Amino acid sequence: MSASQTSSSDVPADVPTLLVKIFGKDRPGITAGLFDTLAAYSVDVVDIEQVVTRGRMVLCALVTEPPPGLEGDLRSTVHSWAESMKMQAEIISGRGDNRPRGLGRSLVTVLGHPLTAEATAAIAARITKTGGNIDRIFRLAKYPVTAVEFAVSGVETEPLRTALVTDAARLGIDVAVVAAGLYRRAQRLVVMDVDSTLIQDEVIELFAAHAGCEDKVAEVTAAAMRGELDFEQSLHARVALLEGLDASVVDKVRSEVRLTPGARTLIRTLKRLGYQVGVVSGGFTQVTDDLKERLGLDFAHANTLEIADGKLTGRVTGEIVDRAGKARLLRRFAAEAGVPLSQTVAIGDGANDLDMLNAAGLGVAFNAKPVVREAAHAAVNFPFLDTVLYLLGVTREEVEAADILDIG
Q1: What is residue 183's predicted lDDT score, i.e. its pLDDT?
Q2: Which of 111, 253, 262, 305 is 20 to 30 Å apart from 49, CA to CA?
């Protein structure tokens, strides 16, 4: 589906207007032909909307009434022109412009794989029950998931988000609700967690596999990510198990790291659109510095494994990157990038990402633990990191255009 819409200045509510609707098989010249036909009657354009789905067009034009005595001729001419183009026409008399949209405007992005009619009906019904009105629907993507955006007015963003997110889990879809406005496309900094977000792995578990203690480390990691243990204490406990490991393991771990599907596409597209991208991690600079270079990231910060005499000492150096630290780094990156915090996006999956997600203008829980999904502004539960682009209003066509530019 594609759509376009524009509007002129308001017309008084008592001014007669005509809604001209043309529908049928899409072909070049329909829009120009309609307005060439209307131009002969000296009408002004109040509003236009056009939608094309599977080659079928619906074109609506709201125009002022023609001079006295010409409306009948206008109607006859438009119908004759439409018939000559093998289209159908409908003309409805009325007064004034469209009714004004209600206060409170939000953009609701729905992701499904597949997106069922049942889920779509439930979302639309819930929007109505909250007092919202659906002003426009637009498809952002058809793969790897179906992504559809609803423009909603008449209800504030927070209560709408609460109502829709509650339904999403039951319906097997993801729903993100953000306030409409220019700021949405002005978000120019994206900061993401690394382990189980940018990459599929937990880096410390990769190190632990070489030390033969992966089961014990994995157990502590899982408890920490659920918020059951203090992160700093758990970090020290896990790193201590790596004492004596040869430093040559660092290169092996780097080669074992697996990017999350869609990670390269996400970063490449964001960079093409002018975003700055960074990572913060409770993992280690020995890996994040490599990722920064490989992926062309603007920012990267993590803990650093201490190495002495060619061996891991079982300690980390410098300030620990924990839950609060990630939020501080988001603020630091935003300041360095010259981006207001309200125009940042944070992506993460664990409890230690919560402060960062809440501090950002848009916090996205990616395949996250329940406690994180419930607290974040939006959640994505599909295993493709580039689906986050749809929450930013980026279409699949824009993603593909970025790919072409990259190849070129």
Answers
A1: 61
A2: 111
The pLDDT tens digits for 225-239 are 676 778 888 899 899
What integer pLDDT is reported at residue 178 of this predicted model? 86
Assess contact for 177 and 107: CB atoms under 8 A: yes
- With tokens 């771990």, the residue in question is 253
Per DSSP, the three-state class of 4 is: strand
Give me 305's structure tokens: 């494994």
CB 106, CB 177: distance < 8 Å: yes
DSSP 62-129: EEEPPSTT-HHHHHHHHHHHHHHTTEEEEEEEEESSPPPPPS-EEEEEEEETT--HHHHHHHHHHHHH
Could you give the CA distance from residue 161 to residue 62 in angstroms, rounded to a whole number?
A: 33
What type of residue sits at position 146?
A: T
What is the rounded CA–CA span in Å between residue 242 and residue 22? 70
CA 41, 47, 52 angle in degrees (round to 5)? 105
Which sign, positive or negative, has the C-alpha torsion 298, 396, 178, 385? negative
Predicted TM-score (pTM) of this structure:
0.81
- C-alpha 355/C-alpha 359 separation (Å) is 6
Do the Cβ atoms of 269 and 389 come closer than 8 Å?
yes
Q: Is 29 left (phi over 0), alpha (psi -120 to 50) or beta?
A: left
At residue 211, what is the residue type? A
| pLDDT tens profile 314-361 | 999 988 999 999 999 999 999 999 999 989 999 999 888 999 999 999
Q: How far is Cα 161 from Cα 178, in angstroms, rounded to an integer? A: 8
* Residue position matching structure tokens 């410390």: 204
> How many residues make up the chain in this entry?
408
List active site positions: 193, 195
| Residue 262 burial (CB count, 10 A) | 19
Tokens of 240: 């201590």
- What's the confidence (pLDDT) of residue 216? 87
In whole angstroms, give the CA distance from residue 391 to residue 379. Answer: 10
Q: Which tokens is 302 given?
A: 């993590």
Scored b (16 or more CB within 10 A) or e, 143-152 reads ebbbbbbbbb
Distances (CA, A) of 24 to 28, 77, 79, 240, 246: 12, 17, 13, 70, 70
d(CA 81, CA 78): 5
Gap between the Cα atoms of 356 and 150, Å rounded: 27
